[in-house]
Specification:
mainly alpha; elongated; Tetracycline Repressor, domain 2; 9 helices; DNA-binding; homodimer
DNA sequence: GTCAATTGCCTGCTACCATTAGGTTTTGAC
DNA sequence: GTCAAAACCTAATGGTAGCAGGCAATTGAC
């Protein structure tokens, strides 16, 4: 019988696609095994557990998004960079809601450290350097940006903004601009 | 045989407590049945499905939080009101992480409309009225505040802020103040 | 107080998922 | 070709969701 050619990476990759198709909750050992026309038990040579599988999907997604974000930000500065970063985050979530859900998974701290999370942070810091904040304020600002982006997109995807005017796109643009203004005046406070 | 006195409300209430004890993912028909010393099938006279049960827990939590928030905000204005609102949200999440997780559940739009969500919105609007924004800007601002609060708390609870200086409390205060400044200057842009 | 209707909960069943242990086949290195 | 490692399978356990149908306790009408 031919082999499916399973590896941890291919499983994580397929898990990410499965997440976008059926939702992240449906990323299950059994479903993934079906996709590879293989028995569930076979996956356990490559992946420790269902939790491990989901964590690997999250890592794939984080890395993917970090790639897109650095591309988007390259060559831009200040508000343009901020908008590019925010948009890359938001666009990715809209294109890949399942992957975005995977990103929300709580990783234990060592896994988180080995993830692309720190890359996201460094990218934000690079943008913030142009706003001339103190070191402490840079950290505050990273946390503000991260919170707002992640919160906005997750509320938007859950439909919170879809039943009222004006459009979510409009709010998003205003918010990005508002954050820019806030960063410009941060130290003056 | 004595009856357990099951009702949908008591199940939702118990589900909320269960969420804080074991995590929202552990809020399961089977576990809840164990708590009431009853067979799982018995719950289905009061609750349609496992998903229905979880949605009811989310509704309980949203209402609970709306109560706390309006109490906290009462009698305060502008930055003090903003801080009170944000803190009530954040404190609640810290005290009740399981309940907070329940709140993230995606409700279908009719359920969301019957939830306490609109009350949260009205409360924010009441605070924003003091900042003299246009109607459209009020909506943008509600979305900004909601996003930032929800994003900050959820990143904080997932541990994202616990491995770097300065402390998360400090960032939180700076961010609240920053949002206040931003609102004050919103129209001047 | 008696009886019928309703409600509350149970038994029993089906089906799916996660996981482990141990066996068999395939593949590649030599 | 041999052989060891890797890839995959069979089989079995135990947990969760959910449905159908039944008996018994409670309630309300009289």
């Amino acid at each position: 019988m031919g082999r499916a050619g399973l590896t941890a990476d291919r499983l994580a990759q397929a898990g990410a696609e499965l997440a976008d198709e059926l939702g992240f909750e449906q990323v299950t050992v059994a479903e993934l095994a079906r996709r590879f026309k293989v028995k569930p038990a076979s996956l356990y040579s490559h992946v420790q557990s269902s939790a491990d599988l989901k964590a690997r999907v999250a890592l794939v997604v984080l890395a993917e998004l970090a790639d897109r974000a650095s591309e988007a930000v390259a060559g831009r500065s200040r508000e343009a960079a901020l908008a590019a970063l925010g948009n890359s985050y938001r666009d990715y979530a809209h294109e890949h809601p399942g992957r975005f859900a995977a990103m929300q998974l709580r990783l234990d701290s060592e896994t988180a450290a080995r993830s692309a999370g720190p890359r996201h942070t460094r990218l934000m810091l690079a943008i913030l350097r142009e706003y001339e904040l103190s070191d402490a304020d840079q950290t505050h600002a990273v946390r503000l940006l991260g919170s707002t982006f992640q919160g906005y997109v997750s509320l938007e995807l859950s439909g919170s903004f879809s039943h009222s005017e004006p459009s979510s796109n409009e709010s998003w643009d205003h918010i990005i601009h508002g954050l820019h203004i806030l960063l410009e005046n941060w130290q003056v406070r």
